[in-house]
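Translate structure to sequence.
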C-alpha cells in the first residue's frame, strides 16, 4: 500500500514545481532542437504563465504537493464547488508514474465526490495516455474542444 499524502504548496516549492512542469513538457521540448538555454527560458516563461493563470482562474482552489513516503513526487490542483470537484492539474514525476499513484489520488477524489454528491471532472489533452486511466476509473468524455477533452465521473455512472 502506498503511503501518500497531500500538503499545501509553499513558496519554497517553486523549484520543485518548475521541475514537475518541465517533466510534463519534456516530450515536446525534445522535438524542438532547442539548446538547453532556449528550452529553459521557454519552460520558465510557460510555467510562470500557467502558474499565474491557474491561481487567477481558480481562487480558493487547493494547490497541493503530492508526497510519497515523505518525498515530493508531483502536484495536484483541485477546485471544489457546490456539486462539482474539478481537477485543475495532476502531474507526477516520471520515475513515479505507472505505479498506481495517479489512480490512488483519483480514487480518493472519487470517494470525496461520492460523499459530497458531486461530480468529478478533469480536462485532458486528446493525446495524453492518462485518458486510459480515467476511463478505467469510470470517467466519461463530456466534450472535446481543440486539443482537450472534458471528462467527468459521477457516482451514479460508475
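Result:
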Amino acid at each position: 500500500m502506498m503511503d501518500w499524502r497531500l500538503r499545501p504548496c509553499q513558496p519554497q516549492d517553486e523549484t520543485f514545481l518548475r521541475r514537475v512542469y518541465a517533466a510534463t513538457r519534456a516530450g515536446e521540448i525534445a522535438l524542438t532542437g532547442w539548446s538547453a538555454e532556449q528550452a529553459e527560458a521557454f519552460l520558465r516563461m510557460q510555467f510562470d504563465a500557467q502558474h499565474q493563470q491557474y491561481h487567477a482562474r481558480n481562487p480558493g482552489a487547493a494547490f497541493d504537493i503530492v508526497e510519497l513516503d515523505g518525498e515530493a513526487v508531483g502536484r495536484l490542483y483541485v477546485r471544489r464547488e457546490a456539486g462539482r470537484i474539478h481537477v485543475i492539474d495532476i502531474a507526477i514525476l516520471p520515475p513515479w508514474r505507472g505505479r498506481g499513484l495517479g489512480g490512488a489520488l483519483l480514487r480518493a477524489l472519487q470517494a470525496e465526490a461520492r460523499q459530497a454528491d458531486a461530480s468529478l471532472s478533469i480536462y485532458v489533452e486528446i493525446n495524453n495516455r492518462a485518458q486510459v486511466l480515467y476511463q478505467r476509473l469510470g470517467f466519461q468524455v463530456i466534450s472535446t474542444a481543440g486539443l482537450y477533452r472534458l471528462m467527468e465521473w459521477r457516482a451514479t455512472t460508475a
